[in-house]
Design goal:
8-stranded mixed sheet; disordered N terminus; 444 residues; oxidoreductase activity, acting on the CH-OH group of donors, NAD or NADP as acceptor; oxidoreductase; UDP-Glc/GDP-Man_DH_C; 5-stranded parallel sheet; UDP_ManNAc/GlcNAc_DH
């Protein structure tokens, strides 16, 4: 690099740092989903001009009209952001050239057939940045992925396609999202951010940006460390959920109350972290992230025995629930009402919810299945058929042979379940906690 080029690059990074420190930087967030949308709003709240990108034109129109598609985020907050005139929502990727900072918050699903990573959305985002990006932009990936993605999919592709040098002409970093949908205790600004840049300059710029948004930054030496840290966080949870699920199934056969066991163990003030069993592992993180680590490890000829065993246990839970519900009914072709379709309480998110497997298992065996969810009015099953949420009234409930409590939303009045005719299969132990105990309640 000659002296003139080096000075221009130094001026570029100094200008970017100045824009960050004065909050004059324009922030582009690619993906207005459960991660990108709250991040974009937080950036607006902190004083930045923000462009929220999404290729779903229907979602863009909805948001631009002030209607939030995420239950955690009220319309009032979205409208407040829009009224500042510092929040724009667009499907026009050419606006990327206006941005000083671009944060990628797109889905990273698995190929359902063989559970291998699907980085289609990241590749598409990078295609847009190659087409419309410019010098001296800071590109940050937040989507969960396997180690090496930031370098190979973003840094190396941008460098080779645009002829720019990483760390001088443009800057790349990885900072894993840690959004917890439905958890009002931890907002975006409260959750510490792990930041790993491709170069030291990249780390410093990304850390400077996030320090204007969140209260705590933890820089690491590389994107790979940050990428693996996120996979560890959720693999840890997946494996421990498998342990407590196996304990629950075995305790039921031993005629021991697993919920009382957990409560007793939780009195230990050290060395124990409480996990609870459930009908299956759902959502966009926990049942997916371990397989990103498994894939990269297996690609290198390494084994992931514990992840494999945890997958076997967790994947079997919805089948175990459906089988036990049939046993409780005591007859074939029974009628069953499932309470809650979301993967997690107090959310309207059915992604990867175990309710789909439970429904399909029971329907395949000739059962008539309905569901009630106050936050999800309609669901689409894997065969393309649709079901609508039914009313939650005593009259409706008494039509069924078995009630399965799948998702324990707080807004549901569980006292309605007192003295109803059906057997209640409570997979969340909510009846006892909500004072709706019933002699016909059976727990997981």
């Amino acid at each position: 690099m000659n002296t003139v080029t080096k000075e221009a690059s130094n001026l570029g990074q100094k200008r970017l740092l100045h824009l960050i420190e004065t909050k004059q930087a324009i922030v582009g967030v690619l993906g207005m989903g459960y991660v990108g949308f709250p991040l974009a709003l937080e950036c607006v709240d902190k004083g930045y001009n923000v462009i929220g990108f999404d290729k779903n034109s229907e979602k863009v129109s909805l948001l631009a009209a002030g209607s939030s598609h995420i239950q955690d985020i009220e319309d009032d907050r979205l409208n407040s952001a829009l009224q500042t005139k510092r929040f724009q929502i667009s499907a026009d990727m050419s606006l990327i050239q206006k941005c000083d900072i671009i944060v990628i918050c797109v889905p990273t699903p698995l190929n359902k057939k063989d559970k291998i990573p699907d980085l289609t959305y990241i590749d598409s985002a990078v295609d847009s940045m190659i087409a419309y990006g410019r010098q001296h932009q800071l590109l940050i990936l937040e989507s969960t992925t396997y180690p090496g993605t930031t370098k190979k999919k973003i840094a190396d592709r941008m460098a080779s396609s645009r002829g720019m040098k990483i760390g001088t002409d443009f800057f790349t970093a990885y900072s894993p999202e840690r959004i917890d949908p439905g958890n009002r205790q931890y907002e975006v600004s409260d959750i510490p951010k792990v930041v790993g840049g491709t170069t030291q300059t990249c780390t410093e710029l990304a850390s400077a940006f996030y320090s204007t948004i969140v209260t705590s930054i933890h820089p690491v030496t590389s994107p790979e460390v940050a990428e693996t840290a996120k996979l560890l966080e959720n693999t840890y949870r997946y494996v421990n959920i498998a342990l407590i699920n196996e304990m629950a199934l075995n305790c039921r056969e031993l005629d021991i109350d697993i919920w009382e066991v957990i409560c007793a163990a939780d009195t230990k003030p050290f060395g124990f972290q409480k996990f609870i069993p459930g009908p299956g592992v759902g959502g966009h993180c926990i049942p997916i992230d371990p397989f990103y680590f498994k894939w990269i490890a297996n690609e290198k000829g390494l084994q992931t025995k514990l992840i494999d065993l945890a997958d076997e246990i967790n994947s079997n839970m919805p089948i175990s629930v459906s089988d036990y519900a049939l046993k409780l009914a005591g007859k074939d072709k029974c009628s069953i009402l499932i309470i809650g379709a979301a993967y997690k309480k107090n959310t309207n998110d059915p992604r990867e919810s175990s309710v789909f497997t439970i429904m399909e298992e029971l329907m395949d065996k000739g059962c008539a299945i309905d569901y009630h969810d106050p936050f999800i009015s309609e669901i689409r099953l894997n065969d393309g058929s649709r079901k609508q949420s039914v009313p939650f009234t005593k009259e409706q409930i008494n039509q069924y042979d078995v009630i399965i409590i799948h998702t324990d939303h707080d807004v549901i009045d569980y006292s309605i379940l007192k003295d109803v005719s059906p057997i209640i299969f409570d997979t969340r132990n909510v009846c006892k906690e909500k004072s709706a105990d019933n002699c016909r309640v059976v727990t997981l």
